[in-house]
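pasting Carboxymuconolactone decarboxylase family protein for the record, 131 residues
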Amino acid sequence: MSEKNGVEETADLRARGWKAMRALMPGVFPEGDVDLRDGRLGEDLVDIGLTSVFGTLWAREGLGPRDRSLVTIALLIALGAETELKTHVRIGITNGLTQDEIAEVIYHSAGYAGFPRAVAARTAAREALEP
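structre below
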């Protein structure tokens, strides 16, 4: 990415972020550059995630979406970030992970992140996969 000025760079990251988010969560967001701000405290946080996480990290070529989902699920388990984990379990399914593979990540995390984190992750994953 060439940086001509901050505005152009941000626009490029937003476009890449939207492309990645729509691929990971089909049908969730309308087409176009949607304003994610809601007028409440911390309203720019989602926009920061759009550009920095999805526009920069998920748009990279080094790993495919399926592998990024495996890594992300494991990291969110280790962090105890169940809210985000629910979203990324669904994204993982979109990216081709099976429920058995997600369960294996949870089992594996018990040895590295601890049993309580794995139990919380199992609960979050079950909730995410409920119809």
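The radius of gyration is 16 Å.
The chain has a mean pLDDT of 93.
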